[in-house]
Design brief:
Elements lengths: L3 H20 L2 H15 L6 H8 L4 E3 L7 H4 L4 H6 L1 E7 L5 E7 L5 E8 L1
Antiparallel strand pairs: 1-2, 2-3, 3-4
């Protein structure tokens, strides 16, 4: 009888943890915030408007400057060449970067994302 109660309690704890894990996925909330942020950004939007929506970028790569591999892996080569790129941090469990490419007149030309 003494072994049965702790075993039953352990089984209940595991079952509750499993159910809780199925109902709440922290990766999902970060992805939802990324998608919501992405939807707010429109082609042709000026850089000031993007900054007012997303806050200041974590990284700001000017046109023609070197880019880290994690940016180059995500964005098309045409976008990488003549555009400045800003990386906006979307925090949470499994954080993401929203990558926004701006043309020579500082207007949105392309939007992409990558995990950190």
């Amino acid at each position: 009888m003494k072994l049965t109660l702790p075993l039953l309690l352990a089984i209940c704890c595991v079952a509750l943890g499993w159910i809780g894990g199925c109902l709440f996925n922290p990766y999902e909330t970060t992805r939802e915030r990324l998608i919501e942020s992405w939807r707010l950004i429109e082609p042709g939007m000026p850089v000031e408007k993007v900054d007012s929506i997303l806050g200041l970028p974590m990284y700001d790569f000017s046109a023609g400057s070197g880019r880290p591999g994690w940016v180059a892996e995500v964005l098309p080569e045409e976008i990488m060449k003549g555009h400045s790129i800003r990386a906006y941090y979307i925090d949470g469990f499994g954080p993401q970067f929203l990558l926004v490419a701006f043309d020579a007149s500082d207007q949105v030309a392309f939007v992409g994302s990558t995990d950190t």
